[in-house]
């Protein structure tokens, strides 16, 4: 394999690799830190797979969860599941540090899956924000605006656009290997246009939508306050809405924004390999956190999870049904086991 000569010569930029200063080659090491790192990353992969599997099984098995809104969550869970099954192992075997030194076939395969699945995950999150906008801001038109056909179109567009972005990214990368320094248009496509369409534009859309949701939720809370004169309950509603939206956008930006900011700054140089590698794993960890954010917040999902984890889902004689219970003036969901 060919290496990029002079690339971080003599700098131990990854605990599982070391550079020979004489031969300029990159070799693997089996240090204790490397072993602990792989155990930790393997643990993250297992959590990602298990969490998203729970979401998929819950929605597929319980017919009461077969709604257009939950189909978007299934699409997100499938994407994140593939990240845990495919991208995590490939990134462990062919890390970013390794692929910066060796540009072999497996690195290109890793990059392709990473770009497609990561971009699809972001687009799914954007589609979920659109669904929440209609549910909160236009509740009367929600069922007509967001139906199964519309959701399927949104899912197909998320996957289709992600594949196109990945194709453009890979083509630009291959052209750079051929033209070396005389390929300004390919650098613009890979370093500027790809991040804009795969991250910055969806982020702007999500920020705008969630801001609109927050403002509408506050107006609705004030209307309820004027109607029922219950300032304490309205204050709790406002705090809950603010907390939920802050967690949704906060976790998303925490995982994704540093990497794309670093990716954009590559044009200016000065981005170290350890930082780039760490931020890449931070983006992948978003696939582990999504099930907790977009599913575990809903009590009917938590009830379904308890049935699945306890093994009652395998009892043939047991009928599992989600029913709506109303207690103390509040609405909540739970699972009823009917023999």
Automatic annotation (TrEMBL):
PROSITE patterns in UniProt: G_PROTEIN_RECEP_F1_1, G_PROTEIN_RECEP_F1_2, G_PROTEIN_RECEP_F2_4
Pfam families noted in UniProt: 7tm_1
Topology of this chain in the membrane: Multi-pass membrane protein
One Gene Ontology cellular component annotation held by this UniProt entry: plasma membrane
TM region(s), chain numbering: 36-61, 81-102, 150-172, 192-211, 245-268, 288-309
CDD domains: 7tmA_TAAR1
GO biological process: cell surface receptor signaling pathway
Protein name: Trace amine associated receptor 1
Organism: Fundulus heteroclitus (Killifish)
């Amino acid at each position: 394999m060919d290496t990029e000569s002079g690339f971080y010569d003599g700098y131990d930029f990854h605990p599982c690799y070391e550079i020979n200063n004489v031969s300029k080659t990159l070799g693997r090491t089996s240090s204790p830190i490397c072993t602990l790192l792989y155990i930790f990353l393997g643990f993250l992969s297992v959590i990602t797979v298990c969490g998203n599997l729970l979401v998929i099984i819950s929605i597929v098995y319980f017919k009461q969860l077969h709604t257009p809104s939950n189909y978007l969550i299934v699409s997100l869970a499938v994407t994140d599941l593939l990240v845990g099954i495919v991208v995590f192992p490939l990134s462990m075997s062919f890390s970013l540090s390794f692929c910066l030194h060796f540009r072999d076939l497996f690195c290109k395969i890793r990059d392709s899956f990473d770009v497609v699945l990561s971009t699809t995950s972001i687009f799914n999150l954007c589609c979920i924000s659109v669904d929440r906008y209609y549910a909160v801001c236009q509740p009367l038109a929600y069922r007509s605006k967001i139906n199964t056909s519309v959701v399927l179109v949104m899912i197909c567009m998320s996957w289709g656009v992600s594949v196109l972005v990945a194709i453009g990214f890979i083509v630009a990368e291959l052209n750079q290997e051929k033209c070396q320094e005389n390929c300004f248009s390919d650098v613009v496509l890979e370093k500027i246009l790809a991040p804009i369409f795969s991250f910055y534009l969806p982020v702007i859309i999500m920020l705008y939508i969630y801001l609109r949701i927050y403002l509408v939720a506050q107006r609705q809370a004030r209307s309820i306050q004027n109607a029922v004169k219950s300032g304490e309950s309205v204050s709790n509603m406002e705090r809950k809405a603010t907390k939920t939206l802050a967690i949704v956008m906060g976790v998303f930006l925490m995982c994704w924004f540093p990497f794309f900011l670093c990716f954009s700054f590559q044009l200016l140089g000065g981005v170290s390999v350890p930082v780039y590698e760490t931020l890449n794993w931070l983006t992948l960890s978003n696939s582990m956190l999504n099930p907790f954010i977009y599913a575990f917040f809903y009590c009917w999902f938590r009830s379904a999870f308890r049935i699945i984890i306890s093994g009652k889902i395998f009892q043939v004689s047991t009928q599992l049904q989600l029913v709506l219970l109303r207690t103390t003036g509040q609405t909540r969901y739970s699972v009823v086991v009917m023999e």
